[in-house]
């Protein structure tokens, strides 16, 4: 096992919006021998009715690197909605010179469908992500009003996250979920280089719950697409990358 001096360790945070592939990426990082990668501890603390100070204290401990570390990178992932003190968190990230991995998804339509499908999976299995292919959800009929609302919420969340990252003015790597799917090796190399860790073989734990071809997922896809005819979202319903 390798050991690293404090100044050789890269602190990082993954900032994301739900269904952006952050769990998939974190599971890959967890399997890297030089990385300490933690899931959504802020969400856990929030559910436990912890305070903003509790969240920041936990994050400060994580980013306070020991003189000798067995990890060359250490960090966690969080949604902004789970951060109880956004200003305090920003100040901590700046103080600790934390690198930011910003997850985003180009296809907002698929992000919304994935959100709806993830809720079905959670209601069925208690997991938001798919770990057993036998748990994959069957095709569904999408409620138009719910889709419209979730799409608006997605637009607002994308804008909020971008504004927060811009405000941080920290070293930032933008990772596109679609690129992680279609060219995993090259995307991971970019991430490893950003974190200053060696490029080693890693293995994900999660499976893709929502097919990239929405015709396999949404029974009323044509009708749903028609509602967005003439908008920038029209082609997103039938885009298939993998």
Draw up the topology in text.
Layout: E1 4-5, E2 10-16, H1 22-30, E3 35-38, H2 41-47, H3 52-63, E4 68-69, E5 73-79, H4 86-95, E6 99-104, H5 108-125, H6 144-168, E7 172-176, H7 177-182, H8 184-195, H9 221-227
- Element-by-element helix/strand order: EEHEHHEEHEHHEHHH
The largest β sheet comes out as:
5 strands, parallel
Number of helices: 9
Fourth-level CATH superfamily = P-loop containing nucleotide triphosphate hydrolases
Q: Distance between termini?
A: 37 Å
| Order of the strands making up the biggest sheet | 3-5-2-6-7
CATH T-level topology: Rossmann fold
CATH class, anyone? Alpha Beta
| Tally of discrete structural domains | 1
Low-confidence stretches: none
Count every beta strand, where a strand is a DSSP E run of 2 or more residues: 7
Give the overall shape, derived from the CA principal axes: globular
